[in-house]
Amino acid sequence: MTRLTFPPALHAEWIKIRTLRPQIGALAAVPLATVAFSALAGLGAGDDDILFSAFFGVNFGQIAAIAFGTTAVSAEFHTGALRLSLAAVPRRGSWFAAKLTAIGLPVLAVGLVTGLTALAAGAMTVGPQARDATPAEWVRGTAGCAVYLTLMALLAAGLTTVLRSGVGALSILVPFLLLVSFVLGDVNGNAADFLPDRAGQVVLHSSWDGTLGPWTGLAVSALWTAAAVAAGLWRVRVRDA
Amino acid sequence: MTSIDVHDLTKEYGPRRAVDRITFRVPPGRVTGFLGPNGAGKSTTLRLLLGLDRPTSGTATLAGRPYVSLARPLRHVGALLDAQAAHSSRTGRDHLLVLAASNRIPVRRVDEVLEETGLTPAARRRVRTYSLGMRQRLGIAAALLGDPGVVLLDEPANGLDPEGIVWIRGLLRRLAAEGRTVLVSSHLMNETASFADHLVVLGRGRVLADTALRDFIDARVHPGVRIRTTDPAALENALTRQGHDAVRHPDGHWTVRHARVDDIGPLVSAAGVPLLELSAEEGTLEQAYLALTAVDAEFAARQHEEVRP
Fold it and tell me: Where is the ABC transporter domain (chain B) (predicted)?
């Protein structure tokens, strides 16, 4: 087939996102939540990890990114919506790739803005101590923040596709992210280091003492996301719509 | 030309056969009514045609090609499956813009189909504010968006007001007159009779009939003649002399079964019977359909009994 199905499918998926107010709201909430919670944590001060105190709010910003990824997919599972989408783009692999791209790219862009804003806000609240982290570390933190948020949004999108339910995906992910990680706290050097959020957030720290470094940590998160996306793709291709 | 070809199509959901080895062809240039009781397999067949469900066996093709092989399917096939498919928080126009973008259909077409379906004034309102009839019109607008050669509509008259029903009737006739292939599923008999040229009737996953509308009715319901007179004795005498089977009804009118006004009129006139009324009683699609499904139901019941120990 000479005519590509992906670019028009991506265009359609992007229109779907920008024409739904809650989706735009969720995107806007990513930097807002991140910066607000970072600022709160920064005021508490005394954190020995300057970099992470600037990016602490990502723990909350990611909830918005997850909500965005989830709702973008769950909208397809309302009455007959998926049938209409797949009737328009019958190549399900192309359709799913377009859907994920339309979720991932905006989150990546918003994630960069979030990282930069958190960095600026962090530098302001932390003051002269900000110099305790090197410019290279700040760049890594900012880029890592964008990649991490994108991976979490895609993880949510993949999981929602597998479960065919946004409520189902959120009721797994949100308690998992908010509770499990906090309960485990700063305990390092165990299997919990390999959970998608804990692994991916190493990139937001100046120093780490677990098995995973910043980039290997993101790679582990990416594996989780890849698994969720692969399972979602399988579900989309095999199932009757 | 684009015709729909369904060949030996079977779909099983677990142990249940929703569609059981059906074969039929829908040619262009006429409106084909797709009839059958709920659960007969109409919607399943439409989903199989659109590649949404995968057949257990058999094929469903459009102009010889499976739907999923079409790169820009909406330009070939327009379908209305579920009027509730549009997201309620999106505007009607945005809903159509999404579909247009996915198949590289110019934005101009979006405004054209909104106009055609009478939705222009509501185009920038959210779908949540639409009535059932407006959602139905939006679904029809979506089906017409790509100017397709094949149009598949599942219960298009659902929720439409009387003007809407007249409108859809005209629309279907026009689409067929333009040479398109039009398949319309419905459970409303009088409605279907008003627009269909041809019928495919499903029952329990099988094709019960695939025939022209007129033939379908004539084969099952015999036309009759309705007569009222002031002289019943003379009428009965005249009719029985010619071997006609006349029945008198409690309210005083008579029906002559298996007869035509062309024969009965001259006959009673020659006999000098005073007439108050003489009219043809044509069979209706509803009568024919019920006659067909009664036979089918009887067959099913008998089969059921045979299975019992």
Answer: 4-229
- Domain enclosing residue A188, as ranges: 6-238
Specify the range with the lowest mean pLDDT, choosing from A82-91, A186-195, B257-266: A186-195
Dihedral pair phi/psi, residue A64, rounded to 5°: -65, -40
Residues B249 and B109 both lie in one domain: no
Please indicate, yes or no, whether residues B141 and B228 belong to a single structural domain of this protein. no
Give pLDDT, residue A188.
58
Residue B273 structural domain: 222-281
State whether B162 and B192 are in the same domain.
yes
* DSSP classification of residue B230: S
Q: How many CB atoms within 10 Å of residue A102?
A: 22
Contacts of A9 in chain B (CB under 8 A): 102
Nearest partner of B275 among B287, B261, B289, B265, judged by Cα:
B265
Mean pLDDT per block of 10 residues along chain B (309 residues) reads 92 93 97 92 95 96 93 96 93 98 97 97 97 96 97 93 94 97 92 94 93 91 88 88 87 87 88 90 87 75 56
CB spacing of A79 vs B67 below 8 angstroms? no
- B277: Cβ–Cβ under 8 A, 6 or more apart, which residues? B226, B227, B228, B253
**Dist CA B136 CA A6 (whole Å):** 29
Closest residue of chain B to A90, computed from CA coordinates: B68
DSSP annotation of A177: I
Number of structural domains found in chain B:
2
Claim to verify: residue B108 and residue B253 sit in the same structural domain: no
**Residue B157 and residue A180: Cα distance in Å, rounded?**
53
Report the pLDDT value the prediction gives residue A140, as an integer from 0 to 100.
92
Asked if residue B78 belongs to a domain, the reply is yes
| Judgement on whether residues B37 and B129 belong to the same structural domain of the protein | yes
Judged by CB atoms closer than 8 Å, whether chains meet at A240 and B70 is answered as: no
**Domain presence at residue A92:** yes
**Best residue in B53, B93, B102, B153 for a mutation probing chain A (most A CBs within 10 Å):** B102
Q: Which of A17-21, A38-42, B231-235 has the highest mean pLDDT?
A: A17-21
Shared-domain flag, residues B198 and B260? no
> Does A12 reach chain B within 8 Å, measured CB to CB?
yes
Res B309: pLDDT: 43
Count the Cβ atoms, other than its own, within 10 Å of residue B202: 25
- Are B158 and B187 in contact by the 8 Å Cβ rule? The answer is no
Question: Which of A22, A80, A90 has its CB closest to that of B70?
Answer: A90
CATH number at residue B113: 3.40.50.300
Is position A1 within any domain?
Answer: no
Question: Is B304 within the bounds of a domain?
Answer: no
Q: How many domains does chain A have?
A: 1
Domain check: are B41 and B124 in the same one? yes
Cβ proximity of B222 and B257 under 8 Å: yes
